[in-house]
Amino acid sequence: MTAAIYIDPLVIQPVIDGEWHRIRLTEIPAPGQIITMLCGASGAAMFQLSDDERRRQRGIPRQCERCDAIYRHERGIPLRQNRTGRP
Ligand SMILES: [Zn+2]
């Protein structure tokens, strides 16, 4: 028996050095697998509960500007000044 946990790829935003990045995923990466963000940054995938990350960072990480710009450009979403909200 499996208990499937579905993850929406749109909500996966890997954090590197306190910055949220965006990534285009076609499948769930394996832990430790090197994944590359839209901006070109890469790192080994690590899964954590988002609550843990927020506690560790003591605040909400910044959005990577380059990933955000690329993501918005691809989707035709205009850049916005207020980056605190979620799309
Ligand atoms: Zn980025």
- Percentage of residues assigned to helices: 10-25%
> Domains counted in the coordinates: how many?
1
Radius of gyration over alpha carbons? Answer: 14 Å
Uncertain parts: none
Content-based structural category: alpha+beta
- Profile the largest sheet: 3 strands, mixed
* Count of DSSP strands: 5
Q: Whole-Å distance between the termini? A: 36 Å
Ligand inventory reads:
zinc ion
What is the strand content? 5-15%
Number of helices: 2
Model description:
Helix content is 22%, strand content 14%. The chain has 2 helices and 5 strands. The protein has helices spanning 50-57, 65-75; strands at 15-16, 19-20, 34-36, 42-44, 62-63. The radius of gyration is 14 Å and the shape is globular. The protein starts with 14 loop residues before the first strand and ends in a 12-residue tail after the last helix. The model has no long low-confidence stretch (mean pLDDT 83). The structure holds zinc ion. Residues 21, 37, 39, 41, 64, 66-67 line the site of zinc ion.
Keywords:
87 residues; alpha+beta; 3-stranded mixed beta sheet; two-stranded antiparallel ribbon; 2 helices; 22% helix; binds zinc ion
Topology at a glance:
Layout (H helix, E strand, L loop, with lengths): L14 E2 L2 E2 L13 E3 L5 E3 L5 H8 L4 E2 L1 H11 L12
The protein binds zinc ion (ZN).
Summarize the structure.
With 87 residues, this protein is an alpha+beta fold. It is built from two helices and five strands. Strand 1 and strand 2 (19-20) form a beta hairpin.
